From TrEMBL:
Pathway: Amino-acid biosynthesis; L-methionine biosynthesis via de novo pathway; L-homoserine from L-aspartate: step 2/3; Amino-acid biosynthesis; L-threonine biosynthesis; L-threonine from L-aspartate: step 2/5. Homodimer. NCBIfam families: asd_B, PRK14874.1. Keywords: Amino-acid biosynthesis, Diaminopimelate biosynthesis, Lysine biosynthesis, Methionine biosynthesis, NADP, Oxidoreductase, Threonine biosynthesis. It holds the Pfam family Semialdhyde_dhC. It comes from the Eukaryota. GO terms for molecular function: aspartate-semialdehyde dehydrogenase activity; NAD binding; NADP binding; protein dimerization activity. It catalyses: L-aspartate 4-semialdehyde + phosphate + NADP(+) = 4-phospho-L-aspartate + NADPH + H(+). Belongs to the aspartate-semialdehyde dehydrogenase family. It comes from Micromonas pusilla (strain CCMP1545) (Picoplanktonic green alga). Coiled coil: none annotated. This is aspartate-semialdehyde dehydrogenase.
């Protein structure tokens, strides 16, 4: 079950130079747009699945609720789960107040679909328990992504990989949500891969605070205040100043010199595309952006593809919005992508360092919390219906 969501407003492009007044008006418009509340309610239906949210108090957990509401997801019962310290608190969903329950082994009795975003250790402990009880677990952590037999799904890319996973036809199971950077990249480049084949991809990511959770977002905001006020910066989540700075992604380093975030993109892409015949390298950077990641992607293609044809392929593909106005220097930004379903794609151009038309460059932006996490998980849940 899917519903198309129309854009509230079109991106306004300004030719350089831009007046400060114009920039202020544009940024105010984007801020108002990003703060809008959903007016559509989820669909409470006695015939719908019984749903649980594990990790409901986190940034992605809260986004689960917004996306379920926005997409009018049918449900007959909703259960809110979190750690013991959050148990007893209340959360509003679909016009009703729900009391948060402590996540326990019996939390998934009589639950059909569980959306997990409570961290890898919690998923490893409770995911298999829920699946054995007949629940379909859609897990946002890295716990099962590379586990053999566990589908790793981006609905626009490889929905057929979970074709047998259906309520009433299969007794539970675990389905993994890929890493946010992988989702954003592959929604953008898979249409090209289908058309002519990709034999090499090099990605450089510019990742927002949202990827590290709500506390990291709060720390970026606090550090910005600290710097502007001339105060010592508060450093709790990262051991570096984040405001007005950027640094290599904070994921642990591996023996090959890549960090775990970079290797997620490498390994997950190969699993999702079901191939080892593609070379992938990534460099992942944290940037002081609140929400939505950006990525610069360089592709080596298996055969020639003109940039104009590439643009038309992308324009006609699901989940993509093109912003590629060279005349006005207007291309995707994280602000454009914030709170949006689509992956924004621009800077579509031939790589002049590669022979013929076998090289292509793209710049993409996507909302890490939304399509990079919660929306993708809810789309997976829709495929279960």
């Amino acid at each position: 079950m899917t519903r198309s969501v129309s854009l509230i407003c079109a991106r306004t492009c300004y030719a350089s130079p831009v007046s400060q007044a114009s920039l202020s008006r544009r940024n105010a418009l984007i801020r108002r747009r990003n703060q809008c509340r959903f007016s559509v309610y989820a669909s409470k239906d006695s015939s719908g699945p019984k749903v649980a949210i594990a990790g409901v108090t986190g940034a992605v957990g809260q986004e689960f609720l917004r996306v379920l509401t926005e997409r009018n997801f049918p449900y007959s019962r909703m259960k809110m789960l979190a750690s013991a310290r959050s148990a007893g608190k209340e959360v509003e969903f679909d016009g009703e107040m729900y009391k948060i329950e402590e996540l326990k082994e019996d939390s998934f009795d009589d639950i059909d679909i569980a959306l997990f975003s409570a961290g890898g250790s919690i998923s490893k402990k409770f995911g298999p328990i829920a699946a054995k009880k007949g629940c379909f677990v859609v897990d946002n952590s890295s716990a099962f992504r590379l586990t053999e037999g566990v589908p790793l799904i981006i609905p626009e890319v490889n929905a057929l990989s979970m074709a047998e996973y259906k309520l009433g036809k299969m007794h539970g199971g675990i389905i993994s949500n890929p890493n946010c950077s992988t989702i954003i990249a592959l929604v953008a480049v898979t249409p090209i891969h289908r058309a002519v084949g990709i034999k090499r991809m090099v990605a450089s990511t510019y990742q927002a605070a949202s990827g590290a959770g709500a506390l990291a977002m709060a720390e970026l905001e606090q550090q910005t205040r600290d710097v502007l006020n001339g105060d010592p910066v508060t450093m709790k989540i990262f051991n570096l100043q984040y405001a007005f700075n950027l640094f290599s992604h904070n994921a642990p380093m591996t023996d090959n010199g890549y960090n775990e975030e970079e290797m997620k993109m490498v390994n997950e892409t190969k699993k999702i595309w079901s191939t080892e015949d593609v070379d992938i390298a990534a460099t992942c950077i944290r940037v002081p952006v609140m929400r939505a990641h950006a990525e610069s992607i360089n592709l080596t293609l298996c055969s020639d593809l003109d940039e104009k044809d590439a643009k038309e392929i992308l324009r006609s593909s699901a989940g993509i919005k093109i912003i590629d106005d060279r005349a006005n220097n207007c291309f995707p930004t994280p602000l454009d992508a914030s709170n949006r379903d689509e992956i924004y794609v621009g800077r579509i151009r031939q790589d002049i360092s590669q022979p013929g038309r076998t090289g292509l460059e793209l710049f993409v932006c996507g909302d890490q919390i939304k399509k990079g996490a919660a929306l993708n998980a809810v789309q997976i849940a829709e495929l279960l219906l």
